[in-house]
Amino acid sequence: MSELVIREVAKDLWTFSVPFTVFGLIAAGGRSIAIRHSSGGVWVLASTPLCEDQKAKIAEIGEVRWIVAGGELHHLYLKEWKAAYPSATLVGLKELVEKKGQEGVKFDAVFESEEYPKLGYEDEILACYFSGAEKKEIVWCHTPTKTAIVADMLFNLPANEQYSKSKQSAKLFLLGALNPTTMMHRLYVGKNTPNPEVMKKHVKIVDSWDFTRVIPLHGDVFEGNGKEMWRLAFQKLLQ
To answer: Which domains does the chain show, CATH number per domain?
Structure first.
């Protein structure tokens, strides 16, 4: 039985959730996301292996027009996604250009400064490139569903949904939980903030967006309290 969990989180917004263990110890979970733009094109954040069940569902949703990397640590499967959808625009960040180039992967558009590429989804999908984070990433927001999407800015573990069809356990035996209410998460945010002034600017940009839901790539969706969790995680930078 496939361990993939496909869920329509909101109108025109789907998640593809799977088990993923970090260092063989931490049940972090993995997730890709598909959004159907009002033009009919499909925007995909590709962070998990592409399987036949995903392909079938995406074929129902529409034509893949954009494939984006979630962040500096979320790039492993871009090559196979681009191979499956060669006409899609592959979007990355500058920290991945050389690394993926060595694999024969070339980005069609790159986030590398405050001037973001204009690719046709911006009327419904906002972006903020966190160049001040230790591990760079792009935070997104699907405005019609008031949904922010983060790679490694926020966690919400245990990853119950991502392990719901797995024989593996989602339990965090050492941590218990990892989310903005925990001390470990606060320590993580501090470590991921080597450049506080730049981080502060970008955290405030995201905070200005109108969202109530946050979909992290690791852990369960923050439903209804997304903005609250964002502000709790970055309260020092928002002061």
So the answer is: 5-238 (3.60.15.10)
- Report pLDDT for 24: 74
- The whole-number pLDDT of residue 1 equals 46
For residues 112 and 138, give the distance between their C-alpha atoms in angstroms, rounded to a whole number: 11
| Torsion over CA: 228, 234, 238, 239 (sign) | positive
Of 75, 187, 232, 203, the residue nearest 131 (C-alpha): 203
46 dihedral zone (left: phi>0; alpha: psi -120 to 50; beta): beta
| Residue 166 and residue 3 in contact, taking contact as beta carbons nearer than 8 Å | yes
DSSP strand E in 38-185: where? 41-45, 63-68, 89-93, 109-111, 125-130, 137-142, 147-150
Kindly report, residue by residue over 129-180, the tens digit of the pLDDT.
999 999 999 999 999 999 999 999 999 999 999 999 999 899 887 678 999 9
Nearest of 57, 49, 110, 114 to residue 83 by alpha carbon: 49
Specify the pLDDT at position 22.
Answer: 85
Can you say how many angstroms the Cα of residue 15 is from the centroid of all Cα atoms in its chain? Answer: 10
Axis crossing angle, helix 226-233 with helix 196-207, rounded to the nearest 10? 170
For the entire predicted model, the pTM comes to: 0.96
Which residues, given as ranges, of the chain have pLDDT below 70?
A: 1, 174
Contacts of 93 (CB under 8 A, 6+ apart): 69, 71, 72, 110, 111, 112, 129, 136, 137, 138
